[in-house]
Amino acid sequence: MINYKKDFEVLQKEVNGSTIAYLDNAATTQKPKQVIEAIRNYNKNYNGSPHRGAHYLSIKATEIYEETRKKVSEFIGASKSEEIIFTKNATESLNLLAYSYGLNQLKEGDEIVLGITNHHSNIVPWQMISEKTGAKIVYIMSDKNGQLKKEEIESKINKKTKIVSVSHVSNTFGIIHPVEEIIKKAKEFSATVIIDGAQSIPHLKIDVSKLDPDFLVFSGHKMLASMGIGVLYGKFEKLKEMSPFLFGGDMIEYVDLYKTTYEEIPYRFEAGTQNVEGVVSLSVAIDYLNNIGMENVENKEKELLKYTLSRLKDKHFIELHGGNDTSYRTGIVSFNIKDVHPHDVATILDEYNIAIRSGHHCAQPFMKSMGFNSTCRISFYFYNTFEDIDRFIEAIEKVRGYLGYES
Amino acid sequence: MSLNEIYSELIRYHNKNQLNKKEIPNATISERGHNPSCGDDITLHLKLEEDIIIDAGFSGIGCAISQASTSIMIDLIKGKNINEVENILNTFLGMIKKEVEDEDQLNILGDAIYLRNISNMPARVKCCALPWHSLKVSLERIK
User: Fold this and answer.
1) What is the mean pLDDT of each run of 10 residues along chain B (143 residues)?
2) Of A67, A159, B34, B55, which has fewest CB within 10 angstroms of its CB?
3) A229 CB contacts (<8 Å, ≥6 apart)?
4) CA nearest A351 in B: which residue?
5) pTM for the full model?
């Protein structure tokens, strides 16, 4: 098994005598030296305001920006680069859709169908739209393992449904949802489908030409790139139905005193000076992932998942979530330790230089539907190793002892 | 700071025994405190006669630090009048913010003084301070 940690300096750094076992990749991934160097190189040699200047640096920045748009479109199988809009992150992409699509399209009597496992970013904007338009929110509920139920997909998507917005992969349990079925069902009623790919694009090969959603969103920082760069993919015909989201800067065509006309798609959705160094980081991140091969990324994470579940399953003090069927799971393991609150678990593991996430994972409605308040979550990327997991297993054996319980 | 200092005997005792985790019948005031980032969600119940807290308890869920901090606080404020409680509260919050360091002044905090170490843990300060903020809001409402 190839060890990719050589490219990630933060994972080689020693703190109090050991390196960090970084198991919080669903929150954000680390950046390889290739990405860090590319950002430096861009700022050193090419920094200019894109789409605005007639000088060398502006032209170079524009070239880099637009070449990456093309690269992103190829990475996800979009039909043309104009279908790619750069945003700040997946959250901004979803807000853009809520304001620029939902607000214009919905009215009282319509229904917005959401997955109960959705991240808050794919719930809260729709609540705002629901309040403003009178459209009703309806949830597709999950089974005890966090998988969206087939019968719920069948019954909740109907002739009232105008928008369906679901996570491809749950950030809490790592469950891969049956988005193919959801998209098919939505199309029966001509509903618009939005897929939150924040937890799938970095880990699975996604081809929108086959999957066929109307929109897909994701964040760069969960796939090796910088924070502050995100993507909104939209079918060109759908993008044409949308009004701009943010106004000003270079998203205009002509501005008169009291009236403005807007630039072509996608530029009309990219107001203000854009994050070109973030785009550079995304470009190199895609190169890096393509070089490994997304199938290999997926397979490596699956191996790590299976190994972790096998090491955890006999521990009497562990409650595992998400079920044993790894065919529809990515490299996320959510669990609780008997008698110990997840925050205390995270603090104790941090002392052993093991980084995990604890809490509600910005998915409170899902957590409540499952009957608990918070969990511990470990999440992998291709650079994690069996040794990271062994260190984690060794440390969790000690957790209960610190709180005064027998192991 | 070592884990044994954070999860001291005192914290473990209060967390495990949950002595003050109880509803208070006919509570004068109940104030919910919530840390949205971590999910600690604790409601503080106070029963007053005149200006004296004659009984107190809490409900809800949270980590060991928030549970112990709430329980220790309740032990400390029961039987005291509002002015005394306000003084304790301000001293505690001052200690956590590292604004109050005078040992004589800190002595009024009793066992709560042992939560001082938590102020060196940025990720956990909110857990520790949660019930105290509920107490602050309760006192403001009572007044």
Assistant:
1) 87 93 94 85 95 96 95 97 96 94 92 90 90 96 87
2) A159
3) A86, A87, A88, A89, A219, A220, A221, A275, A278, A279, A281, A282
4) B3
5) 0.94
